[in-house]
Design goal:
Therm_gnt_kin, Rossmann fold, globular, alpha/beta, Gluconokinase, transferase, ATP binding, 7 helices, gluconate utilization, 13% strand, 176 residues
């Protein structure tokens, strides 16, 4: 039997561990990992590095690019895991245009824990508690029917295991 391919969005605000968890998840699934941050325009990166939050207009082309990546992997029947904040439902809907069967893993954490993680992170363009506060204000958390929701207080390996178990359960239900 062929292994099914998956398009997976690992979402959450900055500091939630999207990239780290996404890399581990991709490795377990034998999928390609893409960090959505790598697809921001130089203008977006400069804006964030200056401590200025992105707005919907800033994110428009970026989301279109990521949606296109999901569509390309779907067309090739290949698995991909993309880490992207996916803050608003309309952003996730835009990403789903690339693959309506997109699976979502939402990494949920408290402001205090996320701030602590960001303060200890070196070499990243995302700066300042005001930007984290802005992301948390913009966040429209997905409901449990839209995403697998996992606390970032768990170790990354446990988060991956929980998502894989949910993915396997969903596959069994669709087969049976």
């Amino acid at each position: 039997m062929n292994n099914p391919s998956h398009r997976i969005l690992v979402m959450g605000v900055s500091g939630s561990g999207k990239s780290h968890v996404g890399q581990q998840l991709a490795a377990v699934l034998g999928a390609t990992f893409i960090d959505g941050d790598d697809h921001h325009s130089p203008a977006n990166v400069a804006k964030m590095a200056s401590g200025i939050p992105l707005d919907d207009d800033d994110r428009h082309d970026w989301l279109a690019t990521l949606s296109g990546l999901f569509a390309a992997y779907k067309a090739n029947k290949e698995s991909v895991v993309i880490a992207c904040s996916g803050l608003k439902k309309r952003y996730r809907d835009r990403l789903r245009e690339g693959d309506p069967a997109l699976r979502v893993l939402y990494l949920e954490g408290s402001h205090a824990l996320l701030r602590e993680r960001l303060e200890s992170r070196a070499g990243h363009f995302f700066k300042g508690d005001s930007m984290l506060a802005s992301q948390l204000a913009d966040l429209e958390p997905p409901a449990s029917d839209e995403a697998v929701i996992v606390s970032v207080t768990l170790p990354p390996s446990a988060i991956v295991e929980r998502f894989i178990a949910t993915l396997a359960l969903t596959q069994r239900r669709s087969l049976g």
